[in-house]
Design a protein that fits this description.
Layout (H helix, E strand, L loop, with lengths): L2 E10 L1 E7 L2 E4 L4 E4 L3 E7 H4 L11 E6 L5 E3 L2 E3 L2 E6 L6 E8 H12 L6 H21 L1 H6 L7 E2 L15 H9 L3 E5 L9 E2 L9 H4 L23 E5 L1 H13 L14 E3 L8 E6 L2 E6 H12 L4 E7 L2 E7 L7 E2 H9 L4 H8 L3 E5 L2
Parallel strand pairs: 1-11, 13-20
Antiparallel strand pairs: 1-10, 2-5, 2-7, 3-4, 3-6, 6-9, 7-8, 9-10, 12-21, 14-19, 15-16, 16-17, 18-19
Helix pairs in contact: 2-3, 2-5, 3-5, 3-9, 3-10
Bound molecules: zinc ion (ZN).
């Protein structure tokens, strides 16, 4: 079973780890120490950071294990091992949990889905999250992006996926993880590619290239007549003319629109838009511009744009945005999976619906 390294804390001034019979290995002086009984070990990160002042690459400072129990950090308990590393800037520490994949997936299900949801929905999520993690591990994506050994495969946050701790796992999440042990989605040619998921698509899922420009050949946009029965209803937001101006200036600066716009945007006119379009047309100073909808969400954020599925209409001097769904909209629709599982669909059938062009494969 693969062991996954998850960064659970970052940019820390100090780290306190509690556990039974702790075994602590300090790497800079190769000092191994065992503490009997329940003890707390403290790392003052500032004293360590002088070690890599001029390197700007993370250094593995220490590992901590408890052969007889769990490890505690920040009021949560963890299985496996902790690694303490200097952060890439060298001014603080990060903490990484090394944990067997199935244990990681089980506690993650509570955070990324809901442990009380039907088991077939949890299993579908388990396969999606396992594939996502295994892809990060195999490609060593974090280390490649950093340009030096990162000491972890993925971080526990919205950026990657939100993991849990030991007591987040339940009987049901353990079953969902273990019953799908080693199963991932691959492309038809057997490749492991990133598998994405989101809360609610609002009627139709999106392809990665429609949201982030990264082309994943195996993805298709599929209809989802399931998720409308659960979760938030449609949403709407308003954007003032001033904010819209700032957006266009930013988009031009970032190269999201071909022509460079200057400070004077005298007239902004919206061309009528529809929900199922991925781009929106404007006339700015009487010249036509096309902008991808995902770029609007990138600028205004997930509070004003809860999803990437929306239509825009004129409202006074500004615009009104009317949308469906929650999250980026790519891949597995979690609320759709919930509704399908309630109707008796198996996790295999749920995955086949959201990921045509993929096959389920047992890797270990
Ligand atoms: Zn959906």
């Amino acid at each position: 079973m693969p062991i996954v390294s998850v960064r659970i804390g970052k940019s820390l001034r100090n780290i306190l780890v509690t556990g039974l019979d702790l075994k602590r290995h300090l790497f800079f002086n190769n000092d191994v120490r065992t503490y009997n009984g329940k003890k707390t070990v403290k790392f003052n990160c500032e004293t360590f950071t002088t070690l890599n002042k001029h390197r700007n690459t993370p250094i593995l400072l220490a590992t901590l294990e408890s052969p007889t129990g769990l490890l505690s950090y920040a009021n949560d308990k963890y299985q496996g091992m902790f690694k303490v590393i200097t952060s890439s800037k060298g001014d603080s520490c990060d903490i990484v949990n090394e944990i067997p994949m199935e244990a990681y997936i089980s506690s993650l299900l509570t955070k990324e889905m809901n442990s009380k949801w039907p088991i077939e929905a949890l299993k579908a999520q388990a396969v999606a999250a396992r594939t996502y993690a295994l892809h990060k591990m195999r490609t060593q994506q974090v280390t490649k992006e950093l340009g030096s050994e990162a000491y972890y495969d993925l971080e526990s946050s919205q950026k990657h996926q939100v993991g849990g701790s030991f007591f987040d796992a339940t009987e049901s999440t353990n079953a969902a993880s273990n019953d799908t042990r080693g199963e991932v989605l691959t492309t038809e040619s057997g490749q492991i590619r990133p598998i994405f998921f989101h809360a609610k698509c609002g009627g139709r899922t999106l392809r990665p290239d429609q949201v982030w420009h990264n082309k994943e050949e195996s993805y298709q946009s599929v209809n989802c007549p399931f998720c409308h029965v659960i979760g938030p209803k449609s949403w709407n937001s308003t954007i003032t003319r001033e904010r819209l101006k700032s957006f266009f200036l930013w988009a031009s600066e970032q190269g999201y629109i071909k022509e460079r716009l200057s400070g004077d945007l005298n007239s902004i006119v919206l061309v009528p838009d529809e929900l199922d379009k991925f781009t929106v047309n404007f006339y700015i100073n009487d010249r036509p511009f096309i902008i991808e909808k995902a770029v609007l969400r990138k600028f205004f954020g997930g509070v004003i744009f809860p999803s990437n599925t929306f239509s825009i209409k004129k409202q006074g001097e500004g615009i009104m945005v009317l949308g469906e769904g929650l999250g980026h909209g790519v891949g597995l629709c979690q609320m759709g999976a919930f509704a399908m599982a309630m109707r008796g669909w198996s996790y295999k059938k749920i995955l086949a619906h959201y990921f045509p062009g993929h096959v389920l494969k047992k890797m270990y």
